[in-house]
Amino acid sequence: MRTGRDYKFWFCTGSQDLYGDECLRKVEEHSRIIVEELNKSGALPFEVVWKPTLITNELIRKTFNEANADEDCAGVITWMHTFSPAKSWILGLKEYRKPLCHLHTQFNQEIPYDTIDMDFMNENQSAHGGREYGHIVTRMGIERKVIAGHWADAKVQGRLASWMRTAVGIMESSHIRVCRVADNMRNVAVTEGDKVEAQIKFGWEIDAYPVNEIAEYVQDVKKGDIDVLVEEYYNRYEILLEGRDPEEFKRHVAVQAGIEIGFEKFLEEKNYQAIVTHFGDLGSLQQLPGLAIQRLMEKGYGFGGEGDWKTAAMVRLMKIMAAGVKDAKGTSFMEDYTYNLVPGKEGILQSHMLEVCPSVAEGKIGIKVCPLSMGDREDPARLVFTSKAGPGIAASLVDLGDRFRLIINEVECKKVEKPMPKLPVGTAFWTPQPDLATGAEAWILAGGAHHTAFSYDLTAEQMGDWAASMGIEAVYIDKDTTIRSFKNELRWNEIAYRK
């Protein structure tokens, strides 16, 4: 999946001319070395671009505005090598509009005990300069990521890499366009929301289309193209006939192939990166999109069921942020279905009626054609599988009427004890942190939805940083959560985020 941009991050070093040209020469040398070594490390998902040392109001302002104008620049990493008077940064920071990271580091890792003198102290005073710079950014109320530690440390590089992914998510958020096929499911509250406020806050464009407008694209798909895609399906997936006539089965699969091709052409032509469908409004479509939507999600499109545009946008956002992660385990739309409440084996079975992304699958993926009570259409084909084991996060963006809240739950995906041969959907089974009872109670107290955007490849910190950059509330449910402290946090947030 590509975002369309070859993003880079600018590295801007702060200093001043109080200590002379020789000091500034070393500042430049050190910052160049740091950039070169960061790029050589293999730890960062994007290139770091060195920029000349910033020592004047004019140069700082000019550099930040150039960063604003450069469409490939996804953010600026700032480092105060020496003492950089913070008033010099005010105008540049005031006009800067992209993600900002304060890398609070220094060139040397260890104090040179035997040789240190005042010249060294003056030249290498990041502990001093970082606090001056940090003060003005805080006073101006500018959201930024602060990462402290030595630049060559693997943990620091890992945190910088993590922030870069969040920064790209921030940049790409304003390019997310969601196609709503029909409306929300009638009488359902949590999938509704203020689409105008979402565009103001996140940059998302959410547009509605009559279902038959997109169905026309499906009807126009050539049979030869459908046959080619069906052959791909049959080569890639296990065909689970389960007593159905092979030719009849294949005809049902071909319907999904036509939907995949038609939907993708529509989304590409109209420039949408996420889509929502609704089983209650299928127009001339022969089947509820199942296998087709699963494949589109695997290609990087966001999806939300029953008109849930917020989750569709979040799935797209999280797929962008996770793109290119080494040994990625997958990102998908999910829905809480049913509990296992056996002591010591507690968990939540996650799925949806059809649409779970196969990127999260472990082992064989099969195709089944089974009846579906919702939708009043012929039996839809779908991909069936079980998900991988391991830690992940489930995120829910909800509209509380006066503000958005992002709820982030750390979860542990597990293997179910027994096969579920009669359940014809992709599934995951997880236990929320810190345990099922506390996790479920906290989720409900926070107003979390039954739909989530789930990922093995992102962290709660990354999603919280995204929320902070968007100026919205984020609450975390993790190993440290207690109901007493969580309820207090929600009360405090009512005040902090009140309009």
Proportion in β-strands: 15-25%
- State the separation between the terminal residues, measured CA to CA: 37 Å
How many DSSP E strands? 19
Strand order of the largest sheet: 11-12-17-16-15-18
- Low-pLDDT parts are none
Biggest pleated-sheet summary: 6 strands, antiparallel, barrel
Helix count, DSSP H or I runs of 4 or more residues: 15
Average of per-residue pLDDT values: 96
Would you mind describing this structure in some detail?
With 499 residues, this protein is of the alpha/beta class. Helices cover 38% and strands 22% of the residues. It is elongated and about 85 Å long. The strands form four sheets. It has a six-stranded antiparallel beta barrel with strand order 11-12-17-16-15-18.
List the helices and strands and how they pair.
Elements lengths: L7 E7 L6 H20 L6 E4 L6 H13 L3 E8 L9 H6 L4 E5 L13 H6 L2 H14 L5 E4 L5 H20 L3 E5 L13 H8 L2 E5 L1 H9 L3 H14 L1 E2 L6 H25 L3 E3 L14 H8 L3 E3 L4 H14 L8 E10 L6 E5 L9 E9 L11 E7 L2 E10 L4 E10 L14 E5 L3 H10 L5 E5 L4 H11 L2 E5 L5 H14 L3
Parallel strand pairs: 1-2, 1-3, 3-4, 4-5, 6-7, 6-9, 8-13, 9-10, 16-19
Antiparallel strand pairs: 11-12, 11-18, 12-17, 13-14, 15-16, 15-18, 16-17
Helix pairs in contact: 6-12, 6-14, 8-10, 9-10, 10-11
